[in-house]
Every structure is written in C-alpha cells, then in structure tokens.
Amino acid sequence: MLSESTMGDPPRFLSSFFGVFKKGKSNGKKQTRFQNPVALPEEIHHQFSLPQIKAATNNFHRDLILGEGGFGTVYKGFFNDGKSAVVKRGKLESEPGASYKEFRTELLMLCQLRHQHLVPLIGFCFEMGEMILVYEYMGDMRNGTLPDRLYGSGYDPLPWKQRLEICIGAARGLHYLHTGAKRAIVHGNVKSGNILLDKKWGCKLSDFRTSKLRPRRSCKPKASERIDPLVQSNLAYLDPEYLETAQLEEKCDVYSFGVVLFEVLCARRPFVEHDGEMKTTTLVDLACKSIKGGTIYDMIDPYLKGRIAPECFKLFVDIAGSCTRVVGD
C-alpha cells in the first residue's frame, strides 16, 4: 500500500509504484440484438435501441462529432435523463467481419472493468448492422488527449508535476488491467493518443479493441498465431518481441507505456523525422542511444529544463528505459 507521505515525495512514489512495470519482473445485418454480452448487473451495461442512439445524436449530426478514428466516428450524445455521453459509432460495412470482432472484444472487456483511470462504458447498441459503444462523457473534454497537450499547437506546455500525475494515473489503469481480475487483461494498444484527459486533468485509458485475456501459462503458443494488424499499425509503440512471437502479453503493454513516458519527457512524437527527410526512426531508439551516451537531458522538452529535480529525472528515465528494454540488451 502506498502511503500519503510516499505520494508526497515524487521520487519515492514513482519508485514504489512503477516497480511493477519493470519489464521481465511480472510473472451481419440480419442480427438485430447482441445476445447476453456478459452476466453483469444492469447498471454496469445497458443495451440502447438504435432509435435512442439516433435521438441522442440528432441522427448522427456532424455538429456533434468529437473525433474520428480507425474504428469509426465519435459523437457527443444527449439522452433523455439529461446526461451527456460519448457515442462511438463503428464504420458501416457490408461484411462486418473484423469490425464486429473488435466491437465485441471492446464491449466484453469494458463490461467487466471499473476503475477511475479507465474510460467507463455506459452501454452499447447492436442493431441493423450498427455497432455502437456508449461511454461516460468526461467533463467538457477540453483537455483532449495526451499528445494534444504534449505537442499540439495553441496549448501551454504541461508542467512537470502534471505530466507525472498523468503517467501515474495511466500506470494505475494498466496495473488494474494486469492484476485486478482472475485473468490478466492485456490492453494491446497503449499509446499517448489513447490517454484521455478530463477537465480536471485526470487521465483515463481508452480504446480496448485489441484487448485480450492473457493466455494461461500452461497454454503453448499456436503455430498459426498472427500479429494483429491493428496492433501492428502502431509500430513505434510495439514491443519488438511481439513481432517475433505474435504473443500479446502484459510486457507488450509495459513496452508501449515506456514509449509514452519518453513522449511525456521529450514532448516528441514516437516517430522522429531526420531533418525533414522521409527517413524516420523511433523516439525509443533515439532515447536509448542518448541514455547510453549520457546525453538524454539534451533530448527533453526545453520547457522542462531546470524544472525537474535531478533524482526525479534519473528515476523517470530509468523507469522508461526499463520498460522499453529488449531482452538481450
């Protein structure tokens, strides 16, 4: 248990909390209703009808769009109880296939999860080919996603303390996924863009499309196991070992989280261009080389220089490096 006195001391708090993340230390249209998603109390999940969703979003009006992603379009919805919600509408496809699998995965996972640093699921809709998830609306959402605040235009730089609190919140969310259930849950798509910030700067992990239960230790990897295309699309966050084994485990999340830590420290994107050329390298590669060369301080966000206690800086870098360390390095 972490004491209040420990939390008041950033280096001690980081050391005691992030220790768990050090890599290698942890052991079709005809269907109109989604039947029995999971046996949970009604207040945890609710099946909305398509007319309810259309009414809440003014028939998916473009003025209510909050954003668009690989899964589909996200709207702000207004329901009859006076509450606002985030309505995530999957892309309409003649052959749902993989999209249905992603939708079902995220739904089943979120129905079982309740944590202050995970986006809460309110309900879902599966009618007439529509695959819709409804989440709690996080305040006024003006703080957007983590990368918006790290290197988006028009924003003041995030203070170091605020960055630390965001990282600690994300770490707590991941720790819950990995240890808070009978079977560990692997997020599978940890990246700064999936860390949402509410109006009070509280962070929540989102996007559980690639999440899965960790394989039982007794299970042998299947020879036919394939790398998930959605996971592979985020190469800068991808654990190199996953490319070799295709086994999505907790350490994959740990590696990705380490990439996020370097983003937070350096305020740089995970892929780095070389002098405007097409050739790119990863932020992790640059950071690891700088650590070995003793020049990591030169890479950090200029705004943070002189604003981080030396012992805190060293510990943060050690944690990020430990998360992204590949076996054999």
From TrEMBL:
UniProt-listed Gene3D superfamilies: Phosphorylase Kinase, domain 1, Transferase(Phosphotransferase) domain 1
Gene Ontology molecular-function annotations: ATP binding; protein serine/threonine kinase activity; transmembrane receptor protein tyrosine kinase activity
InterPro entries: ANXUR1/2-like, Kinase-like_dom_sf, Prot_kinase_dom, Protein_kinase_ATP_BS, Ser-Thr/Tyr_kinase_cat_dom
Cellular-component GO terms for this entry: plasma membrane; plasmodesma
Domain Protein kinase: 60-329
Alphabetically ordered keywords of this record: ATP-binding, Kinase, Nucleotide-binding, Serine/threonine-protein kinase, Transferase
Binding site for ATP: K88
Record protein name field: Malectin/receptor protein kinase family protein
Naturally occurring in which organism (per UniProt): Hibiscus syriacus (Rose of Sharon)
